[in-house]
Amino acid sequence: MMRAQGRNLHDEFVRLLPEAPRPIAIQRWSTRRVVLLLAVVLALIPAIPLAWAFARSSTNPGGAAVVTGANGSCTQLEELWLEAQSVPSASRIPCVQAFPPGVVGALAVGNGESVLKLRHAGVDINIGTGGQPQAAAEAGSVTIRLTASCAQPTGNGEVIAPGVRRFRTQGPAGTRQVVDVFLGGCLTYQPDAGIGPSDPLLDQAQHAVFFRTREELRDALQRRSAGRLHLDPGGGS
Predict the structure, then answer these.
(1) Whether 127 contacts 185, CB under 8 Å
(2) Contact at 8 Å (CB) between 125 and 139?
(3) pLDDT value of residue 177
(4) In the chain, how many domains are there?
(5) Angle at 163 between CA 159 and CA 166, to 5 degrees
(6) Residue 16 falls within a domain, yes or no?
(7) Residue 221: pLDDT above 70?
(8) Residue 138 lies in a domain
(9) Which residues touch 148 (CB under 8 Å, ≥6 apart)?
């Protein structure tokens, strides 16, 4: 009946308003919207290896998930971020600054620890459940383990880097043990028992390991993600 009378209620109600409402833009794809979406995807790329590694390790609580292609190098930020998240209290994150000739590394991360294994090139080492080496008897390798704490060594130790103190002790059966202690973390170097090549490899491992600060890695992640990702979202140290 209203239409038959030629009346448009919508227009009449709009005229009664103090001012005309602003038109609502229809959400459509545009060049600007596509560019913004691509920028968000690129910013989230650093989170992909972190999420994948921890998804695999979560199926085995307390174990370690091997990070594909990871060798613990100080230039691989994604690996260092994984290590930092595996031990949220650690103020220093270990990495290998320069690999000794003929030595390669393999990194595994888990809930509460990261395991870096250095071995002589040409000898395969598999890191099994809990970060334990398999077929170690043929390898001659050194296991470098990052944890939140360890048995406190005796003595004063040696300052090898800002905030890092190293202790050297004799373990059972004459084996050598090396421990690096720093705020919120501990790094142990464990050579395979009874393996000749492990002794020089232990010395090489001590000289090869370098420490990056948690603050440095936190800032690098924020820069890489344009502030969208945080190393310690829960406010860790």
Answers:
(1) no
(2) yes
(3) 81
(4) 1
(5) 35
(6) no
(7) yes
(8) yes
(9) 87, 89, 90, 112, 184, 185, 186
- For residue 122, tell me if it sits in a domain: yes
Q: What is the predicted pLDDT for the residue at 58?
A: 46
Place of tokens 């009378």: 5
How far apart CA 41 and CA 9 sit, in angstroms, is 46
Please give the residue range of the domain that contains residue 154: 47-224
In this structure, what are the phi and psi dihedrals at residue 161, rounded to the nearest 5 degrees? -165, 160
Mean pLDDT for the chain overall = 78
Is 190 inside any structural domain? yes
Task: Please state the pTM of the whole predicted model.
Answer: 0.66
Categorize the per-residue pLDDT at 201 as very low, low, confident or very high, splitting at 50, 70 and 90. Answer: confident
- CA-angle at 44, arms to 40 and 46, nearest 5°: 150
| Residue pLDDT, tens place only, 106-141 | 999 988 999 999 988 765 544 444 444 444 334 578
**pLDDT given for residue 155 in this prediction:** 80
